[in-house]
Amino acid sequence: MAAQVATGRAPSEAVRIARAMLSGDTGVLEGCIPLASLAHDVVPDWRVDPDFAVFGAVASEVDALPLGTVRAQWSSAALARADVEIARYSRVVNERVLAACRNVVERFESQRPVVSSNTSLERTRDR
Known about the structure:
The chain is mainly α. It has one domain. The protein has 5 helices and no strands. The C terminus is likely disordered.
């Protein structure tokens, strides 16, 4: 897949999260949430991007499930029921999500963060 041109720190953050998911340090479902949030700053239209559409779809499907720190607010019985669904859905999407993570690393790992600056524009206005 060809490299994409994105600006700011979002692409490097997306690569960091994707790598954490590939290594198992971040769960497949848990990692989709921040990747979906970063999508607007990484790709022109996440809805048609083959990788970020996966993250967005999964994040949407798991928004009612107890992932991360919110688990502390759920009862043991409710967690036990939810954990069955979390495990089931993780199995369903695992390969697609990990393939999208590999693609994100391939597409964006060589990009250095680019921070836009209007300094030259500001200097021109001051004259």
